[in-house]
Amino acid sequence: MAAPAEVIPRRPTLLLIVVLSLLFVLMSVSSHTRYVGETRTLFERTVMTIFSPVPKTVNWIGQAASDMYHGYLDMRRAVNENLLLHRKLADLTAENLKLSQSQTDLQRLRSLMGYSEQFALKTSLAHAIMLDTGSRFKSIIIDRGSSNGVEVNDAIVNANGLIGRVVLTTNDLAKVQLISDNNCSVGALIERTRRQGVVRGDGGTAAQMFDVPSLADVQPGDQVLTAGIDGIYPKGIPIGTIVRAERGQELFKSIWVKPAVDYGTIEEVIVIHTRKVPNDVVRYAP
Amino acid sequence: MRWLRFLVGLLIALTLHSLLLSFFPNALAFFNPYVILVVYYSMGGNVLGAIIAGVIAGLVDDAFSGAMFGLHAFALTVCAYAVAYVNSRLALRGTLAFGACLAGAVIVNELVIFILVNILQRQKIELFNQSLLFKTIFTLLFGMLLYQLLTLFLREEPIEATKRPAGW
User: Fold this and answer.
1) Chain centroid to CA B151: how far?
2) Does residue A161 form part of some domain?
3) Residue A74 is part of which domain span?
4) Is B118 an interface residue toward A (CB < 8 Å)?
């Protein structure tokens, strides 16, 4: 049997009153517990426990998103920093190379200057700007010419030894004939025995020493110096080391000399402004 | 099924609640997602269901807010009952009707809270008028937008949007 129609609407109202009353009591309890210091009732704690995964999840997602965002920002910052550091590293590496090169140059120049001070003659420093050591005629070009006081027959040396002599000058440049050239002759002596001879280039990378008697005491390893008797090269400049000495077919020995200078590594050179022998003297020379 | 939908709605409301508290601590002074949920549910006209929905949503709101436990449950239950009762008589449909119910519910909700706080804690709520105004406007705008989206894009109808006699 169906319930009377006028009864049905009263039931929700009754329920509403009951629910509101219960809630009012709950509020009162809650209010009281707050007053005495307890902040959460058991019921409140239960509701929180049931629904706590939602705020936790939201917080976790928010934290993860925040971490990702900040991680991304940190990564961008790190990438930019990495680029800057790479650039700085490249700059510092270049600077380091430059400084290292400067140090090497300084050492070499100090060595050269120290060497040049040995000579009583006037000297000047020059840079080899062209090296022609591969062709038949061995020569180099230096960046000092007649305007710098460089003259034909000036001797060219570096810290290792004799390089050659000036054969041509322009205002700004000078051509130097190497001692390994076929047409170059240098008055020389063997340091150990003071035996004199003439060193001539063999057209390759070495030279030969002539006019040394067969009976002379010559050993491989002997140092060969300039003799200072040709009017061009001052005395005592290292020319090279004897690598082979044989009895020749005639009265003289066949001697091979390895030059003291590696011509492929010439950079700075010393120009020795040698005293020129007056033409009148040359005319009466033997 | 309707309770499942209500539960999903409640979880979304709680998520919004948590998000707002996390990023905009004062946002809940201008916006109440639980009222939207309860009004949306109560528009079906099921008074009993509306009361239960109001109690549950209110308790969840209370559990995660600083108010005394039961305050929001009380207020939301009153709102839910009122909306459901009106809809059981008039069967209101459409965005405007929803908006009107929502606006009324927000005002009733705030008034009930105001009265209860005055009675139980003898405290005055600061800037009540301004808070009421902003909360009504923002909750109304968001609620109507949500309602429009649900009805237009998801072809959603208010829960229990069928004509039924008043009461259960």
Assistant:
1) 18
2) yes
3) 65-117
4) no
